[in-house]
Amino acid sequence: MKFTLAATVAFLASSANAHYIFEYLDSGAAYQYIRENTNYNSPVTDLSSNDLRCNVGATGTGTATVSIAAGSSHTFKSDVAVYHQGPVSFYMSKAPGDASAYDGSGDWFKIADIGPTFSGGTATWDLSQTYSVTIPKSLPNGNYLLRIQQLAIHNPYPGGIPQFYISCAQVTVTGGGSGSPSPTAKIPGFIKVTDPGYTANIYSNFNNYTVPGPAVWQG
How far is CA 47 from the centre of its chain? Predict the structure, then answer.
């Protein structure tokens, strides 16, 4: 009986703390092209942490780099569907050498946002298991980190702390152009605690929303 009770408690605790994590890029296996983190599917919440780049413990060790064409579409898939309200954003950062050796300390630029839609005073979020992004056609060739971020704002600040669900894929862009991505930002530092998109209360007078972070580079 004690074993059964303990197992039940452990299961309930695990279920209560369950979240989600982006494990797949396109048709690759889990963590084939995605850097594997060490905090299971828990979020990052510290705005000053380097873990905001690619998640806790996520280095390029053992991660393959995949070639992708500028102008092509690519899909991230999570272990379970996203269920916390909040925007999805895609960022890229060019590596000075091999993508696998890059720590993400350089400049980042945003290539897409997925925010809410509003109708009749109600906000609708894209809560899915897959999210796709198109690589800008004029992006210069090279090795990059391609980062997906889902910012969960279901527990409004300051009573709650927004949660970042993050994964980075390692990619080599081919067939690109001579564009100059801008604006750029550093991670951490790209989102401030005072940003309206970070502090938004989705349960009170929520009639518009601006996704936090730099503007999207159209490329």
Answer: 14
Rounded to the nearest integer, the mean pLDDT of the chain is 93
Instruction: Please state the rounded mean pLDDT for residues 159-174.
Output: 97
Output the pLDDT for position 121: 86
Beta strands at 66-69 and 88-94: parallel, antiparallel or unpaired: unpaired
Residues 73, 137: contact at Cβ < 8 Å?
Answer: no
DSSP H or E stretch at residue 131: strand 130-134
* Cβ–Cβ under 8 Å, residues 196 and 205: no
Sheet holding 73-78, edge to edge: 22-25, 73-78, 130-134
Structure tokens at 126: 């894209």
Strands 66-69 and 163-174: parallel
